[in-house]
Amino acid sequence: MGIGFNTSEIYALLLLVAPVPRPPYPSEKTYITTTPSGTTETKPLTCWYDSWVAHREASVSKSGSAAQNPIRTGAIEPATLEMSLVVPAYNEEARLIGMLEEALSFLDATYGRVARGKGTGTGYEILLVNDGSCDGTVEIALEFSRKHGLHDVLRIVTLEENRGKGGAVTHGMRHVRGEYAVFADADGASRFADLGKLVKGVKEVVDEEGRGVAVGSRAWLVGSEAVVKRSALRNALMHSFHLLLRLLTPPATSRIRDTQCGFKLFTRAALPHIIPYMHAEGWIFDVEMLMLAESAPGVEDGEGMGNGKGIKVSEQPIAWQEVGGSKLNVMWDSLGMAWGLAVLRGGWGMGVWRRR
């Protein structure tokens, strides 16, 4: 006799295994930055997410139902900068500087800096989310800030406990001030000159509410020498994961050729349809972001996946290079991503998680 599970048993299992992100600690709502004199100071983080939640709770208290008072993109506070860069970092003292130097060169040339205390809608910020590092990541970032005069431009947020890349990115995205918000890996594998491609791409798909997403893609490199030289195991796992994506994700997400590239751009108007509903904190978080974009409502908050008009995603080819020192364990992390993908599909598909 075979062993099977009915729907209620699967639902109960998902309730047990589905990730539930912890609330942020008070210290995680502050940041450290340098001062013109070279010292450091701790300041409170601006948080559009908290304002969004407060607005939503006020709406529910008046009507008793969020669905009767749908939260529109206007609920998010206006941008005070043009570009926000979120960099998740865990023990990145050996690789961080190269990435920051390239980012600084591009951002300075493209967006310039806003005078301290003046929000003009131009300029940029860098939010470095230190994901519980135990090396010199923070000290190196602060020294970089002093050297380049990045007072209040480079903001360092430290998570008291390691949350994983997804948790760090989500936390950073809750605090961005830019009209556009991009996250990039700390290793510098992506070239910052390609940020212009993402901005152009997102402008091509943005909807009437100003929502859009653009993702960097390495799919065009599949037949390149760098990929061919990878181990047979790594390439086999890559193709297996892509097959699972096609089977387990909604149509628009399944058509994205590279879901895992750590270079993704969001318009500010898209954020409240994605960030408040994030659950995944490990490597699979990119897929959840894309699924949430696909299921985003047009006018009203939907309850599950696949019932919204969706936020369009532009996939743009970018330059990319292998960088040593990766923390990815190909075998175990691939298995973890497969499990995480199944939980994501089940959690959203069976209503364990809902847009409330």
Automatic annotation (TrEMBL):
Span of the secretion signal? Answer: 1-19
Q: Which reaction does it catalyse?
A: a di-trans,poly-cis-dolichyl phosphate + UDP-alpha-D-glucose = a di-trans,poly-cis-dolichyl beta-D-glucosyl phosphate + UDP
Instruction: Tell me, in one coarse class, where this protein mainly resides.
Output: endoplasmic reticulum
Q: Does the keyword Transferase apply?
A: yes
Involved pathway(s): Protein modification; protein glycosylation
- Sorted alphabetically, which keywords does the UniProt record give? Endoplasmic reticulum, Glycosyltransferase, Membrane, Signal, Signal-anchor, Transferase, Transmembrane, Transmembrane helix
Q: Is the keyword Glycosyltransferase assigned to this protein? A: yes
Q: What is its EC number?
A: 2.4.1.117
Q: Which Gene3D superfamilies match?
A: Spore Coat Polysaccharide Biosynthesis Protein SpsA, Chain A
Subcellular location, record wording: Endoplasmic reticulum membrane
Picking any one GO molecular function of the record gives: dolichyl-phosphate beta-glucosyltransferase activity
Membrane topology classification: Single-pass membrane protein
What EC class is this? transferase
What CDD domains does the annotation carry? DPG_synthase
User: What InterPro entries has UniProt attached to this entry?
Assistant: DPG_synthase, Glyco_trans_2-like, Nucleotide-diphossugar_trans
Any one Gene Ontology cellular component term annotated for this protein: endoplasmic reticulum membrane
Q: Which GO terms describe its biological process?
A: protein N-linked glycosylation
Q: Where is the Glycosyltransferase 2-like domain?
A: 84-219
Family to which this protein belongs: Belongs to the glycosyltransferase 2 family.
What is the protein's given name? dolichyl-phosphate beta-glucosyltransferase
Q: Which organism is it from?
A: Botrytis tulipae
